[in-house]
Design a protein that fits this description.
Length: 98
């Protein structure tokens, strides 16, 4: 004979089998993440940029030559600054969300 238990006013029959392990569900607020050990994690971020510029222009046997050069280091510095700002904003938003 099977044992009958009631859970939430519904009969639950004991068939002798072990209950299946409950799988983790991200949408279930009662479900803990399988890797969650309630410890905080610290992350360090670094942006390193090394720039070298070597430019040589040699003009031989020419007249009425106009040479225009563009320095791309300024654009790279702006890009590195934007990456640092984005990393800072993300780290702040992650800390606020936790």
């Amino acid at each position: 004979m099977r044992d009958v238990q009631y859970l939430n006013s519904r009969p639950v029959y004991n068939t002798g089998r072990k209950p299946a392990a409950k799988k983790w569900n991200a949408l279930d607020p009662k479900s803990c993440h399988p890797f969650d050990d309630s410890d905080t994690q610290d992350g360090n971020q670094e942006i390193k940029s090394v720039q070298h510029s070597f430019e040589t222009i040699v003009v031989k046997d020419s007249c009425d030559v106009e040479v225009k050069t563009t320095d791309t280091q300024a654009a790279i510095n702006v890009q590195v600054g934007l990456q640092a700002a984005i990393a800072l904003i993300l780290s702040i938003s992650i800390l606020d969300g936790g």
